[in-house]
# Entry
Amino acid sequence: MTSRSDQFDEQVLDAVERIERRLCRPLHGVEIAVELVPPSDPAPWEHRQVPLSRLFPAEGKLPARIVLYRRPIETRAEDPRDLPAMVNDIVIEQLAGALNVEPTTLDPDYRRDD
# Structure
């Protein structure tokens, strides 16, 4: 039996692996992490909603970092069966931002739900 945290981590890893297979190469220069909740000091532009993830651009010798926040993402999913697709979309969006490409470059089937 795996915990919800472990299941979520697996969904993130699956999303990254799918992107690497599509690109036919591993993603270097980007670190991906999962935290339970965002810190209590939101960025100025985040004052009205809880962020689902954050992208910290590469800085000096530090690689770009993407952090997904498990509890807000789980809470936002209306149906637990929707969670893998939501995680996949968030990973695509954040990696696209880190790599400075369009999300459809990473997944041709990507469609942002507005």
About this structure: Strands lie at 30-35, 53-56, 64-69. The longest helix spans residues 4-23.
